[in-house]
Amino acid sequence: GSTGLLIAQGLKQAGVSFSIWEREDPSTYAHREREWTMALHWGREHIANTLPEDIARDIHLIQPEPELVMSEEDETSAPFINAKTGEIIARIPAVSSRRASRRRLRALFSRGLDIQYGKKLVDYKDDGDKVTAIFHDGTVETGDMIIGADSANSTVRTFVLEPYDNILHVEPTMVMNFSTTYTREQALYLKGKYHPVLQMYPAHPDQPTLALFTLADIKDKDRPETWVFQMYLSIWGTNDYPPTNDERVKLFKKYGENYCEPFRSATRWVRDDQIITPDKYRVWCRPTQWDNHGGRITLAGDAAHPMGPHRGQGLNNALEDASQLNRAIRAIVAGELPIKDAIDAYDAEVLARGSKEIQVSCRQGYSNHFWDVWQRSVTRKNGMFKVKEQGQDFNKSAGKVKGEKSVAAHGVPA
After folding, report:
1. Where are the beta strands (DSSP E) in 107-227?
2. Which stretches of sequence are listed as region Disordered (predicted)?
């Protein structure tokens, strides 16, 4: 994924040898049925600090609309909309309101890298000096360190934690997240309402839902019928999805019908045969320091801090992981620190930062689906900034509110 690729780019600049192993085959990796976007705000600086200059200059290409120009207000805040009335509740501040296309991000970060595809990690060996990765096809690779940047369902994390410390809790949320296209007239109507990048509808006043609508990819700005939009609707209280795709589409449209424009029309215009794949958010509620085997095995990105997307912090923390790990490895190579000391320090910082954000994001996940609670939530009060950059006590702001249940432990064209 993006985290491992960014780490590799930093290592390449430092002259450190490495291998990249991707479990998916090239076709699946490059061409997904769904295209989605991720919030890119304070983490952007870590991209610029880690990529080589010739790649960093193309950072704008990771956006769904690469040449997009925004006003200062739109750049540094995003409107949160009353899903029932269409009124702007608040403009939530952020370092940047821009988003990154998952596909475009991977494409940029993989430039000039040799990636070994179709390699599923199944085991490892540690002889006290070197570590060996063992793959399902019999391939083995020995080196000084294994870096697990292998998603929230990390295999590497199972190597460095006891099973009871590695339990991920499934949030009680039904998530319908997919990409789709519209007719030319429909796409023009939908694009840019409220904000050039996204439309966010937290906590519908009459139902426990959250909705987001954004452009996911514009390959040809002159052909709106080819623009790809990301549709997102989550329902709090269950992750027991309707068994058939037809039922999931009907459920999506049922809840979407209660929204204001333009989300209501965007919902109505979704094709009846649209594929909606059930998603579940798995969260590491009780993060525990992993055994890094004397600095020989470590984690980064979602593998190090599986969290929900409720504050848009996952990608940004992953980018900081990549930057911090590159600093640690450079210090090792330069002889400034022993491998154990450098990776111990890296692991401790990642765990502390990730644990705090997991906690805050879990609380925000509940708040995002309930109108009265959202008004007192962390995002409403403090914006989309990195947790530790606020002078306020995020843990206090994120604390359990009255009525809240257990969260993580638990002119319209036709």
Report:
1. 115-116, 121-126, 131-135, 140-143, 146-148, 169-170, 173-180, 198-201, 209-217
2. 395-414
Residue 314 per-residue DSSP state: H
Q: What is the pLDDT of residue 147?
A: 99
Q: What is the 3-state composition of the chain as percent helix, strand, coil, each rounded to the nearest 5?
A: 35, 20, 45
Token reading at 40: 């890119």
Q: If we measure between CA atoms, which residue out of 283, 266, 260, 252 comes closest to residue 216?
A: 266
Match 């690729």 to its residue by tokens: 5
Residue in the block written with tokens 């623009």 = 227
B/e letters for 219-238, b = 16+ CB within 10 Å, e = fewer, are: eeeeebeebbbbbbbbbbee
Radius of gyration for the chain, computed over Cα atoms and rounded to the nearest angstrom: 21
Two tokens, residue 211:
């909705």
- 409/297 Cα distance (integer angstroms): 28
Question: Which pLDDT belongs to residue 36?
Answer: 87
Helices then strands, counting H and E runs in the chain, come out as 15, 17
Joined together, the tokens standing for residue 265 give 């029309």
What phi and psi, each to the nearest 5 degrees, are found at residue 211? -135, 150
Would you state the pLDDT for residue 180? 97
Confidence at residue 304, expressed as pLDDT on a 0 to 100 scale:
98
Q: Which residues of the chain have pLDDT under 50?
A: 389-414
| pLDDT single digits (tens) 84-126 | 999 999 999 999 999 999 999 999 999 999 999 999 999 999 9
CA 140 – CA 124 distance, rounded (Å): 9
Listed residue (382, 379, 380) closest to 361, CA to CA: 379
Alpha carbon distance 288, 121 (integer Å): 22
Three-state SS at 168:
coil
Q: Mean pLDDT, the chain, as a whole number?
A: 92
